[in-house]
């Protein structure tokens, strides 16, 4: 959230860690309290809620929209973004599905020549970005070249799932966010999508508010 109090202050609300379900993102119900240079609005839950209540499993996009409804009163604006770091356990073939802006999960398949170099991970980046117009999710290699970072620029949840097709190795997913300087921070709580084909594993990553 941004406020004009004493200049342009910048705050990041990183939100819930990655959830290991497809139907919930780990966000618990509550309310947003805002103090801006034009006044204060205190979020309420239940009867008479002002629009700043946070619903269980609510998306960052919805939260930002609700905060911005009161910008005239508070002087505070909010933007939402969702990011996740994805680490692949080994080189080889992977099949995953991605759901974010799309209502039907989109399948991506790729072969990694290496799981720990930028060149080796480029196949995953290309496969995911080829579907970005459908999913709203883009991918880049992280700075270390050890994995990729997924992003939804509007703050919709990202649901990542493996399938009944056996992958080359486990896929590890961590929620990520940018701090005030724009540096990527990775949450330490990870969700693992097992490589085996006995059951499909899910993770839902919620967004964060700036």
From TrEMBL:
Keywords: Bacterial flagellum, Cell projection, Cilium, Flagellum. The keyword Magnesium does not apply. It is found in: Bacterial flagellum. Its main location: other. Pfam families: Flagellin_IN. InterPro entries: Flagellin_hook_IN_motif. GO terms for cellular component: bacterial-type flagellum. The keyword Endoplasmic reticulum does not apply. This is Flagellin. The lineage of its organism: Bacteria, Pseudomonadati, Pseudomonadota, Gammaproteobacteria, Chromatiales.
């Amino acid at each position: 959230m941004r406020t004009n109090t004493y200049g342009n202050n910048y705050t990041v609300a990183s939100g819930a860690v990655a959830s290991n379900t497809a139907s919930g993102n780990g966000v618990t119900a509550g309310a947003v309290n805002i103090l801006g240079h034009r006044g204060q609005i205190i979020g309420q839950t239940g009867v008479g809620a002002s629009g700043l209540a946070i619903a269980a499993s609510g998306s960052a996009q919805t939260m930002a929209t609700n905060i911005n409804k009161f910008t005239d009163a508070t002087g505070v604006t909010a933007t939402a973004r969702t990011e996740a770091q994805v680490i692949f356990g080994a080189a080889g073939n992977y099949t995953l599905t991605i759901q974010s802006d799309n209502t039907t999960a989109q399948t991506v398949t790729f072969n990694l020549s290496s799981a720990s170099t930028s060149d080796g991970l480029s196949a995953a980046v290309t496969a995911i970005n080829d579907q970005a117009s459908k999913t709203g999710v883009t991918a880049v290699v992280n700075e270390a070249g050890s994995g990729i970072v997924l992003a939804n620029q509007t703050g919709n949840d990202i649901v990542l799932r493996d399938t009944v097709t056996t992958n080359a190795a486990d896929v590890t997913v961590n929620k990520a966010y940018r701090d005030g300087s724009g540096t990527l921070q990775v949450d330490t709580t990870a969700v693992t999508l097992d490589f085996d084909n006995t059951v499909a594993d899910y993770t839902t990553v919620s967004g964060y508010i700036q």
